[in-house]
Amino acid sequence: MKNILKYNIAFVAFGLFLTSCSSDDDVITNVSGTGNLGLEFDQSYGDNDLILGQANATSQGEIVKISTVKYIVSNIVLTKADGTTFTYPKGQSYFIVDESKPDSHVIDLTDIPAGDYVKVKFGIGVDQQQFNLGAEGQGNFLAEAQAADLLWSWSAGYKFLAFEGTFTSPTVTSDTSFMVHTGQTGTDYNYTEVTLDLPTKALVRPTITPDVHLIADVSKIIDGTNKIKLTDYNEMGMGAMIMGGAALPLVTANLNGMFHVDHVHND
Amino acid sequence: MKIKNFLWVLLVMVVGCSGDETAEEDAAYTNIPLPVEKPSNFPEMAYDLALNPPTEKGFELGKKLFYDGRLSSDGLISCGFCHLQEYAFTHHGHTVSHGVNNQLGTRNAQPIQNLAYQTTFMWDGAANHLDLQPVIPLTSAIEMNGNLTSIIEMMKGDGVYTKLYRQAFADGKVNTENMLKALSQFMVMMTSSNSKFDKFRRNEAGGTLTSDETAGYTIFNSKCATCHATDLMTDNSFRNNGLAVNPLVNDVGRFRVTELTSDNYKFKVPSLRNVEKTAPYMHDGRFGTLESVLNHYASGVVNSATLDPVLNQNGRLGIPLSELEKTQIIAFLKTLTDNQYLTDKRFSEF
To answer: Which residue of B has its CA nearest to A131?
Structure first.
């Protein structure tokens, strides 16, 4: 009991301490110190919010019902208005976004130098340089990936993206499963990086934690620059399984065009 | 005054964290580096030791992991279950191995030796880093079917493991990175380089080959060493060696990794070290003896679109071998047996 009281006193004291510090930053020109930033990955299908299980049409005359969208976000780099960059510590820069887990949609970045940020860059997947180091620098991410079903067990690698559900088309009339998984194959590495301009500056301050609201238009995964008809991959009616071969670099190229920053909150 | 209280609480917290006995015990222990030397007749090492230098405790941890069945979903199947030391860490007598719940795999367990010198792993090269290779058998549903999160939790609750992690790694963390590094430290130390052949190559005592062995080595060099190159007896390539496709399995080999039709039915050229002890042979363990293997190359090679060109020259399939030549090659292959390695207590389960 005594201890609890002391903790309380301590936290109050700490709170006062923080408050007293933050009052200095009412002056906007003071951009010293560090702050936090949230990267929010909001999944859409075209212009609409993504609803898992809802029927959506593709430009290829197919109807898809998406059950799973997951991907690895990595190697985050923020660029300031003056062109200088801040690279988020690599070892802490691997995250899993899972549409079915709302908690995973916002990536909380901490200890970012205060500044006015105008650009964000991130990777989809685990980069090859990191992968070639073996276990080095991976922490517990293999276990996290396995728990999220993003471990490509048979090749000891990661699924960078998992996009799954069912589809129908003029020739495939009953709901048939599809699975699109990207990752390293024997011929292509399939990691990609996305660079986005922010429509308004993200003002990172000790007292301001900007929220960068990104939209990930998942329709682009198979219906982006490269058009992929699931029906073409429905071999022997067993479902369209796109997990390797020539299609993966096409999907990877599409991922590059699936994100945009909708807005930035500076609260 | 309030700040003072806060600092006092903080001090208690810090002292509370570090005051346990294990921390003092660990502080007294200094981990000892283990030297890794490349045998003079070996090619360059592929493994980057600088990123994961083997140490006494890292090795000990890796060995404990290798022989721990609790890493599998049924608590029984350890790495060592299918990789038995006396057979150069293969699964003697098994064409293919059985994993958890007695499920059968489709490929023959490969030996574990000199892996620090290899750039690709598994019969199809699905893994290209030694650290990550164990992820395949650990998590495969038909092998160990392990759950990495459960494995980490199990180890965090085991005092022997947590102590070893603290002693072996600077950050002391029980996580997949350190688990895989420890396994690599164990495997990197597993060098088989003291066969009669090695002693012959290094002009050491005990390295005198008999006339049959010498003749066998000469034939080997002219008829086998294209693929079984260097003193490690592999060029690390993937090739279709003309095995009849087993229709029950239709194992496409390297194609699974690359999806290139040119890689259909190609498998990694295996090292031949300790080959006398690693029967049965081929990716699916179809041949029970070395004689059967040589008979295959002499007269059993089946043509197909991806058959290796060296096995189809001048309108003849396979490698011409007389009965005497086969005997002599086998006499030579037996000089690759390294009894010191097969009985080395450092690598033994008990």
So the answer is: B129
Strand spans (E) along chain B = 238-239, 267-268, 312-313, 316-317
> Please, which residues have CB within 8 angstroms of residue A197's CB and are 6 or more apart in sequence?
A118, A119, A261
What number is the ipTM of this complex? 0.85
Distance from the A185 Cα atom to the nearest Cα atom in chain B, whole angstroms = 6
For an interface test with B, the pick among A136, A150, A248 (most B C-beta atoms closer than 10 Å) comes out as A136
Say yes or no: A116 and A169 in one domain.
yes
Taking only the tens place, the pLDDT of each residue in A207-232 is 999 999 999 999 999 999 999 999 99
Of all helices (H) and strands (E), which one includes residue B221?
Answer: helix B211-223
> Is the domain covering B29-192 a CATH 3.40.47.10 domain?
no
Which residue is closest to B139 within chain A, CA to CA?
A153
CATH superfamily of this structure's domain B196-340: Cytochrome c-like domain (1.10.760.10)
Interface residues of chain A, partner chain B, Cβ below 8 Å: 3, 6-7, 9-14, 16-17, 131-144, 146-147, 151, 153-157, 185-187, 244-246
Query: How many structural domains are present in chain A?
Result: 2
User: Helices B148-156 and B176-188 sit at what angle, rounded to 10 degrees?
Assistant: 90
Q: For B298-331, write each residue's pLDDT tens digit.
A: 999 999 999 999 999 999 999 999 999 999 999 9
Nearest to A156 among B3, B126, B256 (CB): B126
Distance in angstroms (rounded) separating the CA atoms of residues B113 and A130: 26
- What phi and psi values does residue A196 have, to the nearest 5 degrees? -125, 140
Give the number of C-alpha atoms closer than 13 A to the C-alpha of residue B79, restricted to the C-beta side.
25
β-sheet bridge partners, residue A97: A71
Q: Is the overall model pTM greater than 0.90, yes or no?
A: no
